[in-house]
Fold:
Amino acid sequence: MIDVDVIGIRVKVPHNQPIVVLKEHDGNRYLPIWIGIVEASAIGLAMQGVDSPRPMTHDLFVQTLATLNGVITGVDIVDLQEGTFFAELFLVSPDGQTHVIDARPSDAIALAVRLDIPVRVSETVMDDASTTIEERDEEEQIEEFKAFLDQVNPEDFQD
Amino acid sequence: MIDVDVIGIRVKVPHNQPIVVLKEHDGNRYLPIWIGIVEASAIGLAMQGVDSPRPMTHDLFVQTLATLNGVITGVDIVDLQEGTFFAELFLVSPDGQTHVIDARPSDAIALAVRLDIPVRVSETVMDDASTTIEERDEEEQIEEFKAFLDQVNPEDFQD
Structure:
């Protein structure tokens, strides 16, 4: 498995669909994963340290985990089939057992950025789907995410 | 607290914004709560027994709960402030303690329909925000939800 950093949310033209970008920690390969608008917000807002006035779904998830003394120790992006990525969570229960739970990468990453836990990508997935794009500075990434938020329908986030 | 049934997802014109409708179990009052598109799908698809090919966020939540032997015994809609509803989950940990956790009603209801647990609404919220609308038959509700899904952007659900 390859250690990666969650770089940020980008928006792809022409359909303005968000992607979350992972970057090889000890290398220069980037893995873009297409995600939904709500999932992109769940990741991007947490990365920017934006506090939601009410608990969003992944915040509730994290609080429930803490209440039950469950610990997610890391998430892996393990497979890519017909354009769909598959991820796994490593959940340690209070008795010390580790449970592997299937997840969508967007949920796995939304939890990882809140819990500050490692994200890894399998060699095969990285070989198949990574690109080598120029790194962009942080300011530009934030501008992109703000622009993304501007074009989002606020109704998507109501309640 | 008043016991309610989750009746279904409706779509309000002109903005096609979804609402989830709760109905007083022993009465004729309905409580409509505006929610987001993704949350509406999380509730509506589970109510229709639609299996997602991959675990959606609330499915992952439910599986994590089960892995940690946590049990949500019910959800309450407890408050309404400036048009925003507030809910609570009752989470019982393996040691038998009950923890009350703040949640958005959409998350609470999305979990409730998966776990088949009671939903209740406070008397005050019901008095303030309920309406008495005619009951519609099940077929009509499903048609409405299908129409809602037709107008949803599939990109909202990718990944």
